[in-house]
Structure formats: C-alpha cells, structure tokens
Amino acid sequence: MNIQAALTIGAVAKRAGVAIDTIRYYEREGLLPEPTRRPSGYRSYGEGTVAQLRFIRRAKNLGFTLEEIRELLALSADRQRGVKAVRQRAQRRLADIEARIAELERVRAGLAELVEACPGHGAPEQCPILRALSGEGRP
C-alpha cells in the first residue's frame, strides 16, 4: 500500500461515518482486516476499508447481526455461490423482521385497547392498565 495514499484511522472514520472506536471494535471482531502499520506505529488504511465500513453500517441498518455481516462479507468474495447465499440470508432476515413487526403490531393493539379502556382518573386498583400488568385483567 502506498503510504501517501494511505488513510489514518480518523480519516477513515470520517469518510465512513463511524467512530474510531467502532473501527477498532470491528478489527477485534474480525470484520475488518488488521491494518498495516506505518513506521511510527500508526494504523494505515486504504479506501477498501472505507467501503467495507459502509457495507457493515448499511447491513447493520438493515438488521443484520455482526455474525451475519461477517458471513455476507465472506460471501461477497465467493464467485461460485455468493449471490445465491446472500439472497438466502437476506430472505431469512426479512422473515425475521416480518415476524417482529407482527409481534409489535399485536403488542400495539393490546396496549391501545388498554389505553382506550383507562379513564385516566380514579382509584389505581380500578385502572385497567395496572390490573392487566398485575395479571388481573387482559394483557
């Protein structure tokens, strides 16, 4: 790697929109390769690291775990089965998200019902929300 073209950890963090500690964490977790070191001992990065960090950040925003992101990074280099396997992992992630949304919608409906039933005044023992939370009423 050309030292003149190399980036400091601060420059990489700024370009990728992440914190310096995030870069170090991803290195420890094996999501990023260990950087080369300058004679001074400082880390030296290339533009590829910026691209990888953006990939990781976008994958996290889509709900992928770090382990899944590690797999996606490995599959992105697999010319034989990479795209098919990436699609399968994305389909699984989508199914997980849809299940979580369904659960949240169920919780929202139950909570909305309790809020609607609560007058907002009176004795606490008559509050449908408190009764439901204590196991006396409908959840």
From TrEMBL:
Domain HTH merR-type per the UniProt entry, residue ranges: 6-75
InterPro entries membership: DNA-bd_dom_put_sf, MerR-type_HTH_dom, MerR_fam
Annotated coiled-coil segments of the chain: 87-114
The keyword Coiled coil belongs to this UniProt entry's keyword annotation: yes
Superkingdom classification of source: Bacteria
Gene3D superfamilies: 1.10.1660.10
Protein name as catalogued: Cu(I)-responsive transcriptional regulator/Hg(II)-responsive transcriptional regulator,TIGR02051
Organism: Frateuria terrea
